Amino acid sequence: MKKIFVSALLLSGMFGCNSILDKEPLTSITASNYYKTGDDAESAITGAYDAFQGDTYYGSTMNIIGEMPSDNCTSNNGDVVYLDRITWNATSGIVGRIYQMAFQGINRANSILKYVPGIAMDKTRQEQILGEAYFIRALNYFNLVKLYGGVPLRTEPVESGESPSLAASTAEQIYAQIEADLTKAEEMAATQQGGNNNDPRNRGRAIKTTVNALQARVYLTERKWAQAVEAANKVITSGKYGNTLTPNFNDLWPANNKTESIFEIEYAGTEDGGFTLPDLTLPLPPATYSFPKYNIPTNEFVQYADTVKDNRFKYNGVVSGGKSYGSMVYGGAGTGNDNGWFVYKWRNTNFFNSSDNYPVLRLAEMYLIYAEAMNEQGGPSQDALDKLNAVCTRAGLTALTLTDLATKQAFRDEVDRQRRLELAFEGERWFDLLRYAAHTKADPSAEHQVTALDIIKAVRGTEDEHYLLFPIPQYELNNNPSIKQNTGY
């Protein structure tokens, strides 16, 4: 009998006691003794979500890889300095970690999609679990295609004794699969969970509007403007995340299932369910140890942000570790490693086991996606400006007018600026810069003030385009003879 490697490690206390996700851990099991009951299906979907949680994925690595190569952050820590200097290669640790964890999550989702339909269980919940699995597979593949381009497209689980050898599909084929998965996820996922969408025990699950939010981000990346507008609007008008943005930006942090949260990676703050990123980015105190930290805000970014008027960056008072400036903290309690600027969107440490959650999708981004896609379709409009102004005025900035942003380029520049400021340090900056480079390549009239190519040239001296993708990890090349390395590595 073939074995199905589900390995669903329990998200300890992820949603508190009585959570519908509280299931026993699973190890290597066989099809003959598993996928028999509704409880088995619940344990399996827990395992699929769990793949996101580890330190080598959203626990720290996804954020680091999305910020360190960009103009937002820097570090001289030897574990990540190659990201800052854009000198990574096929054996660089972080390069391989997301690849491995994303395919682990894909395999778990594939097992669910193959076996859960055969379980005699509540049909409504069965369909919801399948919808969640499609969402999980789509998010994992979206992360892979943004980082590596074309990768092997697996829609069946890799089971014991089977060869992992599979050639890479094209990026276009991966995006087509992502879109198809999200279409199915939207059809099948719950409208809300547990009868109350605001119950924090259920906010870590994907529901229809979670799917819509990821669709909006995917379509924006593909430059499918009309579809991006439609998907973002479904989220904005749903009312599930508030009818307006939360007035006080600082109330969003730490991001533990606040009103505007659409999808977060949940952490319990325990040894088996803790979040490591805060200890890697904060000074001592409040961090557990003093060492050269990751994701240090660059001097250029500090100058770019308005630390006087912008609520996202202005002075908020003395806190543990220094002085809070909204999204950043100025460390002053120590010397050396603990002086200067540090990220302050995650504020609790607990020996690398923080209980702070990681926000993957939140409402303000949907406003910005809507504004950007509307402008790219037909230029500035009051509708697009209203969404952009909602973000600006929440930050305490003066509302803009169509006279201020009279051209498509002027509007584009302001959206780019607000994305950088609003989503600072949330792991999106490098992906935005990659997206801008692709946008200008596809449409030379669409200029962006900074793209990934500009950063590569500034750091390396030349526009080495192959650094727009990460290399396929060396272990994958060793184990999968059908796959080829990305050009330039």
What would the average pLDDT be, to the nearest integer?
91
Taking all Cα atoms into account, the compactness measure Rg is: 22 Å
**Residues in helix, %:** 40-55%
Overall number of strands: 10
Structural class: alpha+beta
Uncertain residue segments: 1-27
Describe the sheet with the most strands: 4 strands, antiparallel
- Name the beta content range: 5-15%
Through-space gap between termini: 40 Å
Shape: globular
- The run of helices and strands is EEHHEHHHHHHEHEHEEEEEHHHHHH
Order of strands across the widest beta sheet? Answer: 6-7-8-9
Short characterization:
The chain has 489 residues and is of the alpha+beta class. The protein has helices at 38-53, 61-67, 81-84, 93-115, 123-148, 171-188, 208-221, 225-236, 277-281, 299-304, 363-378, 382-394, 408-422, 429-442, 452-460, 474-479; strands at residues 3-4, 29-30, 73-74, 261-265, 296-297, 317-319, 322-325, 328-331, 340-343, 358-362. It is globular.
Notes on the protein architecture:
The structure is a single chain. 51% of the residues are buried. The strands form 4 sheets. Strands 6-7-8-9 form a 4-stranded antiparallel β-sheet, with no helix packed on it. Strands 1-2 form a two-stranded antiparallel sheet. It has 489 residues and is of the alpha+beta class. The protein is built from 16 helices and 10 strands.
